[in-house]
């Protein structure tokens, strides 16, 4: 989902978690965009979050991968700004 407020554009959406180095669909993100935050929300007795920014990258339009953390069974929230 892309939003604009006072001239600032930003996209933000959830994707289903996956194994480390597996594709995660993030609809709307493009390879030219810049990720500004990425979090993993684990479904446990208490909601646990993990900051994924250091290990996540855009690998194709509508697709990201995180290099280390297995997010299977949870969701990943990614926000980005469009570039180019």
Give structural attributes:
mainly beta, 0% helix, 84 residues, 8 strands, five-stranded antiparallel β-sheet, three-stranded antiparallel β-sheet, single chain
Structure, described:
With 84 residues, this protein is mainly β. The model has no long low-confidence stretch (mean pLDDT 89). 0% of the residues lie in helices and 52% in strands. The chain has one domain. The chain is globular and about 40 Å long.
* Percentage of residues in DSSP E strands: over 45%
| Count of alpha and pi helical runs | 0
Oligomer: single chain
Point out poorly predicted stretches: none
Radius of gyration: 13 Å
Mean pLDDT across residues: 89
How much helix, percentage-wise, in residues? under 10%
For the record, the count of structural domains works out to 1
Largest sheet, strands/sense/barrel: 5 strands, antiparallel
| Terminal-residue CA separation | 18 Å
How would you classify the helix and strand content by structural class?
mainly beta
Task: Spell out the helices and strands N to C.
Answer: EEEEEEEE
**Total number of strands:** 8
Inertia-based shape: globular
- Looking across the biggest beta sheet, what order are the strands in? 1-2-8-4-5
């Amino acid at each position: 989902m892309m939003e604009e407020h006072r001239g600032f554009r930003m996209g933000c959406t959830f994707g289903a978690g996956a194994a480390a180095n597996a594709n995660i669909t993030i609809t709307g993100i493009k390879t030219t965009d810049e990720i500004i935050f990425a979090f993993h929300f684990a479904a446990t007795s208490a909601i646990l979050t993990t900051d994924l920014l250091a290990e996540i990258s855009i690998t194709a339009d509508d697709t990201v991968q995180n290099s280390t953390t297995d997010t299977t069974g949870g969701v990943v929230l990614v926000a980005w700004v469009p570039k180019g």
